[in-house]
Specification:
Blueprint (H helix, E strand, L loop, with lengths): L1 H18 L5 E5 L2 E7 L5 E7 L9 E5 L2 E2 L8 E7 L4 E7 L5 E12 L18 E3 L6 E5 L10 E9 L2 E2 L1 E4 L5 E5 L12 E9 L2 E9 L1 H4 L6 E6 L2 E5 L13 E8 L14 E3 L3 E3 L6 E10 L10 E6 L2 E3 L1
Parallel strand pairs: 2-8
Antiparallel strand pairs: 1-2, 3-6, 4-5, 4-7, 7-8, 9-10, 10-14, 11-12, 11-15, 13-14, 15-16, 17-18, 18-21, 19-20, 19-22, 22-23, 23-24
Organism: Channa striata (Snakehead murrel)
Subunit structure: Heterodimer with IL12A; disulfide-linked. The heterodimer is known as interleukin IL-12.
Family: Belongs to the IL-12B family.
């Protein structure tokens, strides 16, 4: 009698453990359910599915990832047992071999989501998502890199917002980045951060990555234009994409001289100099060298632009 009582008790606890997860089932978007399960703990959760109100009295049959279920699953409203990370795409059909009616994709998200396997961390400071903008007009781009073992991963959803206002974004064709346009941004003082959230899945595993920033933190001026040389005087222009007037949107410039054959990131023949003028006269003696210059927002001190350079070989210069 006691043994029978223990069996019944264990069965009841098992059902409770699977039913208590109902609060961890979330509708992410149309036809997509997210089941959040504890990280490192085995789980068995019954997830309710509905084919649709229009099919209430129809002979509805279900498949998982295109395969018949064993035993067969029938009915407009059903529950499926999801064990561990075994989610999938459940489709409902009119009869065993009938036409497709609807589907529900069940994805699994570990909670807490502290084990990321889909995207590569760019750096501890930058995280998994890199965002940049060439000016303050509100347009910015974010990118990410998939790990080699999860190259099949697909972006399911991208959300961008600033203080509860949605920002329009468009995913790149290869799914490696997104271009966004904050139409309320230009020339406004930023009081709230932009938050970009990427929902990406590999098979049934869903991972969510978030990046928050002020636009002023990610603005990197484009390369300077019209670099030219006359004797030892070099001049250049602001990037064409940069805002005007320059008195309000000011840049300052870093200049250096490096030996021929070296990159602009090498140690220079002269110490790195900062100037607010758009020309610079050098006083170095070598007749062969490379002159390098790049720009940065004078006030926000955000990212530097990429270098541009002139190669000087005696009396000849190539910019």
């Amino acid at each position: 009698m006691r043994a029978l009582f223990l069996v019944v008790l264990c069965a009841g606890l098992s059902c409770a453990s699977s039913d208590n997860h109902q609060d961890n089932i979330e509708t992410l978007m149309d036809n997509v359910l997210v089941l959040r399960v504890p990280h490192g703990v085995g789980s068995r959760v019954y997830v309710p599915l509905t084919c649709g109100e229009a099919y209430q009295n129809q002979p509805v049959h279900w498949k998982k990832n295109g395969m018949e279920l064993d035993p067969p699953l029938q009915g407009n409203q059903v529950s499926v047992l999801v064990e561990e990370m075994d989610g999938g795409n459940y489709t409902c059909h009119l009869g065993p071999d009938g036409e497709y009616l609807n589907h529900t994709l069940i994805l699994i998200q570990l909670e807490p989501d502290n084990k990321t396997v889909i995207l590569v961390e760019k750096s501890p400071e930058e995280g998994y998502i890199h965002c940049s903008a060439s000016n303050y007009k509100g347009s910015f781009h974010c990118s990410w890199t998939k790990t080699e073992s999860r190259s099949n991963a697909a972006v399911l959803l991208v959300k961008a917002e600033r203080h509860l206002e949605n920002i329009l974004c468009e995913l790149s064709a290869d799914g490696s980045g997104v271009h966004c346009e904050d139409v309320n941004c230009p020339y406004k003082e930023e009081q709230h951060r932009i938050t970009v959230t990427i929902y990406i899945h590999s098979y049934s595993r869903l991972e969510v990555y978030t990046k928050s920033f002020y636009l002023r933190e990610i603005v990197r001026p484009e390369k300077l234009s019209n670099l030219r040389a006359r004797n030892r005087v070099f001049s250049w222009s602001y990037p064409e994409s940069w805002e005007t007037p320059s008195t309000f949107f000011s840049l300052h410039f870093q200049v250096k001289v490096v030996p021929i054959g070296h990159s602009c990131n090498s140690e220079g023949l002269i110490p790195d100099n900062i100037t607010e003028k758009t020309e610079y006269e050098i006083a170095v003696k070598p007749k062969k060298y490379v002159f390098c210059v790049r720009a940065q927002d004078k006030f926000t001190r955000g990212p530097w632009s990429h270098w541009i350079n002139c190669m000087v070989n005696k009396e000849d210069s190539t910019c």
